[in-house]
Design a protein that fits this description.
By secondary structure, the chain is of the alpha+beta class. The chain has two domains: 47 residues, SH3 type barrels; 72 residues, Arc Repressor Mutant, subunit A (Orthogonal Bundle), CATH 1.10.10.1650. The strands form two sheets. A five-stranded antiparallel beta sheet has the order 4-3-2-1-5, with no helix packed on it. A two-stranded antiparallel ribbon has the order 6-7. The two termini are 22 Å apart. It has four helices and seven strands, in the order E-E-E-E-E-E-E-H-H-H-H.
Amino acid sequence: MLKKILTVSGKSGLFKMVSQGKNMFIAESLIDRKRIPVYPRDKAISLGDISIYTDGDEVPLSQIFSTIKKRENGKPIDFSPTIKTDELKSYFAEILPNFDRDKVYPSDIKKMMNWYNLLINAGIVDFEKKAEGEETEKTEEKETGKKDE
């Protein structure tokens, strides 16, 4: 599900991809439902492509959001915008105990918490659900043993 949710450089909030054209796509804000054109120069990144550094392997953002959802009982995270760095790290350590404290900055944690709240408030609560066509790709990859690139 997070594959169609985007963060766009220079724009606040999150966006859902609603239509794709030849050299751009249309994205709808999760905050106010306004639609904007997004061009290649705008640096849009899918939340499904984001992972968090740990002491071992990287953990996908969808897994982080699912853990937060369980901890918060499906409700938004209640935190102050002026939350202290130690409190952020302590909260995130409950979610992902082995996160890499040198590579994951407090600003990253706060951003993830804000994104989680935006998704919950927009009614997007199934973070690990596959988008249409995504399951087929994974199945083909398993059967052939390689990924088309």
